[in-house]
């Protein structure tokens, strides 16, 4: 005959907590790795020069074209690294906590207090390309 071994409530919660902590560590480590991936090495991104005027949300960057002039900003909010994907009332809006940035990347509404990273860029007139330098 098989006997069932009883377990104390305290021991049960210790085991349950130990099992449940692993997914949280995985998510935490994955978010750190995702954040580190957006840290550029010596990388260039190339876009067509004939982008329409306005704000263009790309994977890692935001390209703003006004009066033929380009501004290139990081798409990651300086608060917690969420990807900025909204433009309204002449401001770039972070979907996570509502931080807002002006067209130059300066923080105008928190919780983010730092400006967005600005990337240098050059124009290849011959090939009609915008080259964004991520390093």
Succession of helices and strands: HEEEEEEEEEE
What's the CATH topology label of the domain at 44-133?
Answer: Rieske Iron-sulfur Protein
Query: CATH superfamily of the domain at 44-133, called what?
Result: Rieske [2Fe-2S] iron-sulphur domain
In helices, the fraction of residues equals: 10-25%
Q: What value does the average pLDDT take?
A: 84
The main β sheet shows up as: 4 strands, antiparallel
Low-confidence region ranges: none
Task: Give the structural class.
Answer: alpha+beta
Named at the architecture level, the CATH assignment of the domain at 44-133 is 3-layer Sandwich
Distance between the termini: 70 Å
Keywords:
single chain, 135 residues, Rieske Iron-sulfur Protein, four-stranded antiparallel β-sheet
Structural features, described:
The chain is α+β, with helices and mostly antiparallel strands and 135 residues long. The chain has a domain at 44-133: Rieske [2Fe-2S] iron-sulphur domain (Rieske Iron-sulfur Protein, 3-layer Sandwich). 21% of the residues lie in helices and 31% in strands. The strands form three sheets. The chain has a four-stranded antiparallel sheet, with no helix packed on it. The chain has one helix at 9-37, and strands spanning 44-48, 54-57, 61-66, 69-74, 86-88, 91-93, 100-101, 107-109, 120-124, 129-133. The radius of gyration is 23 Å and the shape is elongated. The N and C termini lie far apart (70 Å). It is built from one helix and ten strands, in the order H-E-E-E-E-E-E-E-E-E-E. The mean pLDDT is 84.
């Amino acid at each position: 005959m098989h006997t069932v071994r009883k377990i104390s409530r305290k021991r049960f919660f210790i085991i349950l907590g130990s099992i449940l902590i692993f997914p949280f560590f995985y998510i935490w480590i994955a978010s750190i790795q995702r954040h580190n991936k957006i840290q550029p090495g010596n990388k260039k991104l190339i876009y067509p020069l004939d982008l329409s005027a306005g704000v263009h949300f790309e994977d890692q960057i935001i390209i703003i074209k006004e009066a033929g002039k380009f501004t290139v900003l990081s798409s990651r909010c300086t608060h917690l690294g969420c990807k900025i994907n909204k433009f309204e009332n002449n401001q770039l809006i972070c979907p996570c906590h509502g931080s807002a940035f002006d067209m130059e990347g300066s923080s105008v509404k928190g919780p983010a207090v730092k400006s967005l990273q600005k990337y240098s860029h050059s124009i290849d007139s011959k090939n009609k390309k915008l080259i964004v330098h991520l390093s």
